[in-house]
Structure formats: structure tokens, C-alpha cells
Amino acid sequence: xxxxxxxxxxxxxxxxxxxxxxxxxxxxxxxxxxxxxxxxxxxxxxxxxxxxxxxxxxxxxxxxxxxxxxxxxxxxxxxxxxxxxxxxxxxxxxxxxxxxxxxxxxxxxxxxxxxxxxxxxxxxxxxxxxxxxxxxxxxxxxxxxxxxxxxxxxxxxxxxxxxxxxxxxxxxxxxxxxxxxxxxxxxxxxxxxxxxxxxxxxxxxxxxxxxxxxxxxxxxxxxxxxxxxxxxxxxxxxxxxxxxxxx
Length: 247
Prior knowledge:
Helices cover about 35% and strands about 15% of the residues.
């Protein structure tokens, strides 16, 4: 195995660049080094001006999402040896404005997320002294898969609908809404229905499935969207046949 590998890194410095340019760096090719380790080596040893996000280095925080050789991945969980002999092309996640180098602007997602109320909604809260809202293992299993989302934005980067229709609420937000809709403690499904069943919600999805393929946690946002399409369609029929029934 070679001692080094070339990283071709997208650089964008808004004060000097009109568009991103690629810059090549030679980094050590070590057996257990992830792409993030290569970028850290560049930052510490070769070019301190390189900008990128990272935090936990353990595939938990979701902050180090990048495009590596054309695929959206977590750079802390993507290893350089898998791309030997190189070069490895590292770019920011697609479909987002670039702030600087590999750092993207996720304000659009952050603005959309609260609209689906990704928290437990209850009409009446029981006093704390009455104890917890207990669940059976079966009730937990119903929504647990969708609770694994780490907001890494890989699904948005992979989504062809979001690329063409920026108004689309997007896979992660819808999957998180479904996580709470399926929670036995939640009573907010009716409040989420209008947003999720809007033209910018589930019906914008064409079920390409790239979001689920890119998800590093197996959340399957495409599956969550298709499942909710059935729920929304059923509720629409109920509302037509029984106008007083809104839940």
C-alpha cells in the first residue's frame, strides 16, 4: 500500500473566490484513517485556512457530512483506504449554499423542521408526580427506527426532488414528523397533517429512494414518506365521509 494519497478538496473563500476551486493535498495513507483524519492533517500540518465541520468523530453528531467522490457520506466513517490509490475528491454536500470551503448553510432545514412539530404534543400534560408515560416494547419499536436521525443532511444532499424543488420539506423533517406521529404518547398527528400533506410535503416525493440509500443510520426516510402517504390518503377519505371526524 502506498504511503500517501491525494485529497482533492473544494475550496471556497467568498472574499477571494467567485466560485469553488479544487486544491490538491498529499496526506498519509494510514489503515485506520477516515477522510476526516485526512482533512484534519491538512488543517493541522499543511493549510490552516481549510474550513470544515466536525464534532464527535463517532458518527453520532452528523456534523461532518461531505460529498466524497460524488457520494454524500459522513467523513468520520469513510476510510481513505477504500479509495486507494486515489485521488479522493472531497466537496461540500450538494443542494446547499456553501458558506466556506466544506461548510454548508443548513438554515433552510432549520426553518422547515419546526413546522412539522418534531416533539411530543399533548392536549393535557399529567403532573410529574403521577409518573412517566410508560410504553411497551412494541410501542417503542413502532417509531424507534425514525428516531435514529442525526440531522446529518445526507438525505437532502442525495434527494433529487430537493435539488429541483427547494420548497420541499425534505426527507429528514418528514421522517422525524413520522417518528412522533407513531409515538403512543403523542397527540399531535392532526396538527402535523396539514403541513405534511401539502404540495411541499409528502406528495412532492417521487420515491426515488436515494435518501434512504444515503442515510448512515438506516432511518429509511423514503419508507417513512410512503407510509405517511397512506395515512394522509386514508384521513382525506375519512374527512370526506365523516366531516366531523378530524382525528
